[in-house]
From TrEMBL:
GO terms for biological process: triglyceride biosynthetic process. It comes from Linum tenue. Belongs to the diacylglycerol acyltransferase family. This is Serine aminopeptidase S33 domain-containing protein. Residues 183-383 form the Serine aminopeptidase S33 domain. InterPro entries: AB_hydrolase_fold, DAGAT, Hydrolase_4. GO terms for cellular component: membrane. Keywords: Acyltransferase, Transferase. GO terms for molecular function: diacylglycerol O-acyltransferase activity. SUPFAM superfamilies: alpha/beta-Hydrolases (SSF53474). The lineage of its organism: Eukaryota, Viridiplantae, Streptophyta, Embryophyta, Tracheophyta. It comes from the Eukaryota. Gene3D superfamilies: alpha/beta hydrolase.
Length: 715
């Protein structure tokens, strides 16, 4: 069976374009066909070619052939051989990714429209919600689960469509293409796309049964650069609760099949998680429960659609197809060379996904796992994280053979910002009560960030608090007040994944990458400054963030400058800043020295410290003593966190810094002195803050709920 590319012009009635302004676009439809490859162009809107046959019909009939045009993205021919610029140049920070606006109900309604029999074979379609991707975006092929509809990414279409060319596989309800035939169909598409863009990766997202299909295709094509995303893959089918039901389903009378969706609904996914996708998180508890109850009731009314999506004969066929696919994929795991990202649900009642994740992580050569303990089998249709967020968080998004953390970086969306700073980080926001101060050119200190330049490049240089506890408050407030994202220079251990396991959840390190963290490297620093970014730099690095007892608010910097001349090369504005508050939030009870004095535990700590990547092997002084460890901390009754950004230092026109190392060193010492002065100022002034305690701030907010900010000390 060959891969057939059809092109034909169609109008866009579903976009409500005036009749006089309608345009024609070329649509690529690729389907399974036994005939030879051919291409047709220039047909009128009432004459099309589908699966090798020509039709001449009325406009309404033509539209019905394509399973509803609103499920197709109509785009012009792709431009080729374009240079790769930074994605951040084409995307605004806090862009709308649409996550939370679609639910499983939208999936069921759309699926009902898609399953109308047309006698056609499997084919690719492009959801119109995906829109037009940014230039140089890689292709993403979605391989569906048991339903075969291809709408399993309904909640993620808008976000993915921004940075991927999304194509979804649709397997018609009554299609009986065997597993090897589906593998061949996907493989032909893979080879075609690889031939047209050999330097780009191709993403295969396989949901349940689609996971078997993705692994099979990857095993047969080790020479193609693939990123395989598996979502509760059905490779564990032989150990599932569904396999024993196969004989029962075959013997079940057709009259009882309408009950199957309701019987299976409890094990297919987590209904609560499905209903919570578009739940308004900031509602009071009672209103939230009422809204959730209504959504659950509404959802139950749509379950009958499942019996139409998967009739009895189709369900039996699909289960046999999964059985074949599972066996096929498992026998070829050793041949998979692709990068694999595996999502496993902890509440999957259909497949033993958690145990399967452990098996696949050991059996695949390059497999990374993210575990979602509260989700069910239909993870992509449940409340949680956007698929794009997870891909970004594990550092898997790229547009060429290697990840470029600057040019391939996708800025955070509005939903990501709200998730990390207001939903998951709600307690941290309340506990820190962050105060942001800055210094104007005349030396006066003001509330807010008016003293920090907006025009980049800007280099913020400051003190790294214990365990980087300040990052959420600092980056969040900077983004909220200036609408500018800070690109933090981070330790490479955050990007290595060395200590991950099959039960690793989406964590703080992943969020660092989502929010702009970049591995420390001269090349990355160069790219950030050349792109006029706002860069966050901690000269003290890991040694300062993992300081010992008695070293709070102490600068532990290199003896020689490492960043001044690079900043001057690009004319960056350097802003020294100080931050205090770690001692108001946590108590350091066990530092590295304490841990090394504990028998048995010291060997474990030593192994971690020595196996981690080294950043400053050649550095002199205490900063070179960067032992990676997890200190023992005890929480305190929260106080408050304060930041003071000093007077900006211009480097434009400072040729003396570039030519003379001594001049650069003098500026470096001035910056260090300014940072320490800022810290000392805050330590002194916070003693006069009447709202330093979290309890005082809570009382203030209760008395003055209309005020956005809690006051602080007088400047």
């Amino acid at each position: 069976m060959a891969s057939l590319v059809k092109t034909f012009p169609v109008s866009l009635p579903f976009l409500r374009i005036p009749e006089s302004s309608k345009h024609h676009f070329q649509v690529k439809v690729r389907s399974l066909d036994s005939g030879a490859n051919s291409t047709s162009t220039g047909f009128s809107s009432d004459s099309v070619v589908v699966n090798g046959r020509s039709f001449t019909r009325g406009k309404d009939e033509v539209e019905s052939l394509f399973d509803g045009e609103r499920f197709m993205r109509l785009s012009s021919v792709r431009e080729k051989n374009r240079g790769k610029g930074a994605i951040s140049e084409d995307m605004d920070v806090l862009w709308d990714d649409g996550y939370g606006t679609k639910t499983v109900k939208d999936y069921l309604i759309a699926s009902k429209d898609m399953i109308r029999p047309d006698g056609g074979p499997p084919r690719w379609f492009c959801p119109v919600e995906c829109g037009e991707p940014l230039k140089d975006s890689p292709i993403l092929l979605f391989l569906p689960g048991t339903d075969g509809v291809g709408l399993g990414l309904t909640l993620h279409h808008k976000a993915l469509g921004k940075v991927f060319e999304v194509r979804c596989l649709h397997i018609p309800v009554y299609d009986r293409t065997p597993f090897q035939g589906l593998v061949k169909f996907v493989e032909d598409t893979l080879k075609f796309e690889h031939a047209s863009s050999p330097n780009k990766p191709i993403y295969l997202v396989g949901d349940s049964f689609g996971g078997c299909l993705a692994l099979a295709v990857a095993a047969r094509n080790p020479q193609i650069d693939l990123v395989v995303v598996l979502v509760n893959p059905a490779t564990s089918f032989t150990r599932s609760q569904i396999q024993p039901l196969l004989p029962v389903l075959e013997a079940m009378p057709n009259e009882f099949h309408s009950l199957v969706p309701y019987l299976l609904s409890g094990i297919m996914g987590n209904p609560l998680k499905m209903a919570m996708v578009d739940l308004e998180d900031r509602l009071p508890p009672r209103a939230k429960i009422e809204q959730l109850s209504g959504k659950l009731t509404s959802l139950l009314g749509y379950l009958s659609v499942l019996s139409e999506i998967i009739p009895k004969e189709t369900l039996v066929w699909k289960l046999k197809l999964i059985q074949t696919g599972s066996s096929y994929a498992n026998s070829r795991l050793h041949a998979v060379k692709a990068e694999v990202l595996l999502f496993a649900s902890g509440q999957d009642s259909m497949l033993p996904s958690k145990n399967e994740a452990q098996r696949l992580k050991k059996g695949l050569q390059n497999c990374q796992v993210r575990y979602f303990k509260d989700n069910g089998h239909t993870l992509l249709l449940e409340e949680g994280l956007s698929l794009l967020t997870i891909i970004k968080g594990v550092g898997k998004y790229r547009r060429s053979r290697k990840v470029d953390f600057v040019r391939d970086y996708v800025p955070p969306s509005k939903s990501e910002f709200e998730r990390v700073f207001f939903k998951d980080g709600r307690f941290m926001q309340a506990a820190t009560g962050t105060v942001m101060l800055s210094t104007l050119q005349d030396g006066s200190i003001v509330k807010g960030l008016a003293g920090v330049p907006t025009q980049g490049p800007v280099l913020l240089v400051g003190y790294h608090m214990l365990m980087g506890i300040e990052l959420q408050s600092l980056v969040g407030e900077y983004l909220k007040q200036k609408n500018i994202l800070l690109r933090g220079i981070a330790h490479p251990a955050i990007f290595g994944g060395r200590f991950e396991s099959s039960s690793s959840e989406f964590n703080f390190q992943d969020w660092i990458k989502v929010m702009g963290g970049v591995p420390v490297a001269a090349s990355n620093f160069f790219k950030l400054l050349s792109s006029k970014s706002h860069v966050l730099l901690y000269p003290g690095g890991a040694r300062e963030a993992l300081h010992y007892k008695g070293e709070a608010h102490k600068l532990i910097w290199p003896e020689q400058q490492e960043f001044v001349r690079m900043a001057a090369k690009f004319g960056a504005t350097i802003v020294p800043f100080g931050g205090v508050g770690e001692d108001d939030l946590v108590e350091l009870v066990l530092d590295y020295k304490d841990l090394m004095n504990i028998p048995i535990l010291n060997n474990y700590v030593r192994d971690i410290a020595h196996s981690g990547p080294r950043v400053r092997d050649e550095a002199k002084g205490e900063v070179a003593n960067q032992q990676l460890f997890v200190p023992g901390l005890l929480p305190k009754v929260p106080g408050r966190m304060y930041f003071l950004f000093g007077k900006p230092i211009e480097t434009t026109g400072r040729e003396d810094i570039l030519r003379n190392r001594e001049e650069a060193q003098q500026l470096y010492l001035q910056i260090k002195s300014d940072v320490q002065a800022n810290i000392d100022y805050l330590l002194k002034k916070r003693e006069k803050d009447p709202y330093r305690s979290v309890f005082d701030r809570m009382v203030f907010r209760a008395l003055y709920p209309s005020l956005q900010e809690v006051p602080t000390f007088d400047l």
